[in-house]
Amino acid sequence: MLKGNEEEFVDILVARVKTEDPELEKKHDPEQLRSMARSAVTRSETYGFVHAMDQIEFVVLMFGKGPQFDAEPEIRSILDDSSLPADQKLDRLNSPLVSETVWEKVATERDDTKWLES
């Protein structure tokens, strides 16, 4: 579930991801960005991210790495680990537990058309 007023939360997410990647506005119209943000929040919830700050971090990661970044087995195993709280999952994703090789593979396999399937 989105935090507080859903549309305000989506606005916050879109503003944040545009700060991280200003080129997004050239690639996607405002409604596409909003739809992508909603999709990313929904995906975050499947991994147990329920607090706004955790969802924001997940959404930024998803925009940065691509809509299917979580399909990579090493990443998926962290996200699927129900014994870990959300913040620890994010910490592990941003640690050496996920090698540069894995992130390079994610970048190579990035397919932004998958946002439509998310």
Question: Mind explaining what this structure looks like?
Answer:
The radius of gyration is 14 Å and the shape is globular. α1 (6-20) crosses α3 and α3 packs across α4 (52-65). The chain has helices spanning 6-20, 24-27, 30-46, 52-65, 73-79, 86-93, 100-108. The model has no long low-confidence stretch (mean pLDDT 91). The protein has seven helices and no strands. The protein is an all-alpha fold and 118 residues long. Helices cover 63% and strands 0% of the residues.
Short description, anyone?
The chain is built from seven helices and no strands. It has 118 residues and is mainly α.
Write the layout of secondary structure elements.
Elements: H1 6-20, H2 24-27, H3 30-46, H4 52-65, H5 73-79, H6 86-93, H7 100-108
Helix pairs in contact: 1-3, 1-4, 3-4
Features:
118 residues; mainly alpha; 7 helices; 0% strand; globular
> In which range does the helix fraction lie?
55-70%
pLDDT below 50 for ≥5 consecutive residues: which ranges?
Answer: none
Average pLDDT reading? 91
Order of helices and strands: HHHHHHH
Distance between the termini: 16 Å
Content of β-strand: under 5%
Instruction: Work out the helix count.
Output: 7
Main sheet makeup: none
Radius of gyration, in Å, reads: 14 Å
- What overall form do the CA principal axes indicate? globular
DSSP strand count: 0
Determine the oligomeric state from the structure. single chain
Structural class of the helices, strands and pairings?
mainly alpha
